[in-house]
Amino acid sequence: MFSDNKKPRTMNEIGAQPNRISKHTKIKGDIESEADFRIDGKLDGNVKTTGKVVIGKDGYIHGKVECVNADIEGSFNGELLVSDLLSLKSSAVIEGTVSVTKLAVEPGATFNASCTMKGKGGSLNSNASSGFKSPLSKNNEAAKAS
User: Fold this and answer.
1) What is the tens place of the pLDDT at every residue in 87-109?
2) pTM for the model
3) Is the separation of the CB atoms in 57 and 42 below 8 Å?
4) How many whole angstroms separate alpha carbon 26 and alpha carbon 95?
5) Tens digit of each residue's pLDDT (9 = 90 or more) over 46-72
6) CB 144 within 8 A of CB 125
7) Residue 13 CA to chain centroid, in angstroms?
Protein backbone atom coordinates (compact mmCIF):
# COMPACT_ATOMS: atom_id res chain seq x y z
CA MET A 1 0.00 0.00 0.00
CA PHE A 2 2.79 2.46 0.87
CA SER A 3 5.52 0.64 -1.05
CA ASP A 4 8.18 2.69 -2.81
CA ASN A 5 8.78 0.09 -5.52
CA LYS A 6 5.76 1.08 -7.62
CA LYS A 7 6.47 2.39 -11.10
CA PRO A 8 6.82 6.18 -11.31
CA ARG A 9 3.65 7.97 -12.31
CA THR A 10 3.48 10.46 -15.14
CA MET A 11 2.37 14.05 -14.66
CA ASN A 12 -1.09 13.25 -16.07
CA GLU A 13 -1.58 10.37 -13.62
CA ILE A 14 -0.75 12.74 -10.79
CA GLY A 15 -3.39 15.16 -12.06
CA ALA A 16 -1.42 17.86 -13.87
CA GLN A 17 -2.75 19.25 -17.12
CA PRO A 18 -0.63 18.66 -20.21
CA ASN A 19 1.03 21.68 -21.79
CA ARG A 20 -0.74 22.87 -24.91
CA ILE A 21 0.02 25.09 -27.89
CA SER A 22 -3.37 25.97 -29.33
CA LYS A 23 -4.45 26.20 -32.95
CA HIS A 24 -3.53 29.56 -34.56
CA THR A 25 -0.57 29.92 -32.16
CA LYS A 26 2.97 30.16 -33.55
CA ILE A 27 6.03 29.73 -31.35
CA LYS A 28 9.70 30.06 -32.28
CA GLY A 29 12.13 28.64 -29.71
CA ASP A 30 12.96 25.63 -27.57
CA ILE A 31 10.74 23.96 -24.98
CA GLU A 32 11.76 21.70 -22.08
CA SER A 33 9.19 20.06 -19.81
CA GLU A 34 8.59 17.06 -17.60
CA ALA A 35 4.91 16.96 -18.54
CA ASP A 36 3.09 15.87 -21.67
CA PHE A 37 2.84 18.32 -24.56
CA ARG A 38 0.10 18.79 -27.15
CA ILE A 39 0.76 20.95 -30.20
CA ASP A 40 -2.20 22.09 -32.28
CA GLY A 41 -0.43 25.22 -33.53
CA LYS A 42 2.97 25.76 -35.14
CA LEU A 43 6.34 25.32 -33.43
CA ASP A 44 9.65 26.22 -35.03
CA GLY A 45 12.16 24.87 -32.52
CA ASN A 46 12.96 21.93 -30.27
CA VAL A 47 10.90 20.03 -27.70
CA LYS A 48 12.44 17.92 -24.95
CA THR A 49 10.16 16.17 -22.46
CA THR A 50 10.10 13.10 -20.24
CA GLY A 51 6.44 12.70 -21.18
CA LYS A 52 4.40 12.30 -24.33
CA VAL A 53 4.25 14.64 -27.32
CA VAL A 54 1.01 14.86 -29.31
CA ILE A 55 0.89 16.75 -32.59
CA GLY A 56 -2.78 17.42 -33.40
CA LYS A 57 -4.27 17.32 -36.88
CA ASP A 58 -3.55 21.04 -37.45
CA GLY A 59 -0.23 20.96 -35.56
CA TYR A 60 3.22 21.36 -37.12
CA ILE A 61 6.72 21.10 -35.66
CA HIS A 62 9.91 21.98 -37.49
CA GLY A 63 12.89 21.05 -35.32
CA LYS A 64 14.05 18.34 -32.95
CA VAL A 65 11.73 16.43 -30.61
CA GLU A 66 12.96 14.16 -27.78
CA CYS A 67 10.27 12.32 -25.80
CA VAL A 68 9.17 8.97 -24.37
CA ASN A 69 6.02 8.51 -26.50
CA ALA A 70 4.55 10.45 -29.42
CA ASP A 71 1.19 10.48 -31.23
CA ILE A 72 1.24 12.39 -34.50
CA GLU A 73 -1.80 13.41 -36.53
CA GLY A 74 -0.32 16.58 -38.02
CA SER A 75 3.03 17.39 -39.63
CA PHE A 76 6.61 17.03 -38.46
CA ASN A 77 9.87 17.99 -40.17
CA GLY A 78 13.19 17.40 -38.45
CA GLU A 79 14.74 14.94 -36.02
CA LEU A 80 12.39 12.79 -33.91
CA LEU A 81 13.84 10.76 -31.00
CA VAL A 82 11.21 8.62 -29.25
CA SER A 83 12.45 6.28 -26.52
CA ASP A 84 9.32 4.08 -26.58
CA LEU A 85 6.27 4.22 -28.92
CA LEU A 86 5.75 6.46 -31.94
CA SER A 87 2.19 6.28 -33.25
CA LEU A 88 1.43 7.83 -36.64
CA LYS A 89 -2.24 8.46 -37.40
CA SER A 90 -3.60 8.34 -40.96
CA SER A 91 -3.31 12.14 -41.40
CA ALA A 92 0.34 12.32 -40.22
CA VAL A 93 3.10 13.69 -42.46
CA ILE A 94 6.66 12.94 -41.27
CA GLU A 95 9.87 14.12 -42.94
CA GLY A 96 13.44 13.93 -41.63
CA THR A 97 15.08 11.39 -39.35
CA VAL A 98 13.36 9.18 -36.79
CA SER A 99 14.75 7.00 -34.00
CA VAL A 100 12.25 4.81 -32.11
CA THR A 101 11.88 1.60 -30.14
CA LYS A 102 8.33 0.81 -31.33
CA LEU A 103 6.52 2.20 -34.38
CA ALA A 104 2.79 2.04 -35.23
CA VAL A 105 1.67 3.47 -38.58
CA GLU A 106 -1.96 3.75 -39.67
CA PRO A 107 -2.76 3.36 -43.37
CA GLY A 108 -2.68 6.73 -45.10
CA ALA A 109 0.15 8.23 -43.04
CA THR A 110 3.03 9.80 -45.00
CA PHE A 111 6.41 8.67 -43.67
CA ASN A 112 9.28 10.19 -45.68
CA ALA A 113 12.03 9.72 -43.13
CA SER A 114 15.09 7.64 -42.46
CA CYS A 115 14.20 5.46 -39.50
CA THR A 116 16.41 3.74 -36.95
CA MET A 117 14.87 1.13 -34.64
CA LYS A 118 16.37 0.67 -31.19
CA GLY A 119 16.43 -2.74 -29.57
CA LYS A 120 15.15 -3.54 -26.08
CA GLY A 121 18.55 -2.74 -24.60
CA GLY A 122 18.51 0.71 -26.20
CA SER A 123 21.13 -0.11 -28.80
CA LEU A 124 20.50 1.05 -32.32
CA ASN A 125 19.76 -1.57 -34.92
CA SER A 126 20.76 0.02 -38.20
CA ASN A 127 19.34 -2.89 -40.22
CA ALA A 128 15.98 -3.43 -38.55
CA SER A 129 14.69 -5.79 -41.25
CA SER A 130 17.76 -8.05 -41.37
CA GLY A 131 15.80 -11.00 -39.95
CA PHE A 132 13.16 -10.88 -42.71
CA LYS A 133 13.37 -13.46 -45.45
CA SER A 134 11.42 -13.01 -48.63
CA PRO A 135 9.05 -15.86 -49.49
CA LEU A 136 10.89 -16.11 -52.82
CA SER A 137 14.40 -16.36 -51.41
CA LYS A 138 16.67 -19.27 -52.44
CA ASN A 139 16.57 -20.82 -48.96
CA ASN A 140 12.80 -21.02 -49.02
CA GLU A 141 12.73 -22.41 -52.59
CA ALA A 142 15.23 -25.13 -51.62
CA ALA A 143 13.12 -26.03 -48.59
CA LYS A 144 10.00 -26.35 -50.76
CA ALA A 145 11.83 -28.57 -53.30
CA SER A 146 12.92 -31.12 -50.70
Assistant:
1) 999 999 999 999 999 999 999 99
2) 0.72
3) no
4) 20
5) 999 999 999 999 999 999 999 999 999
6) no
7) 21
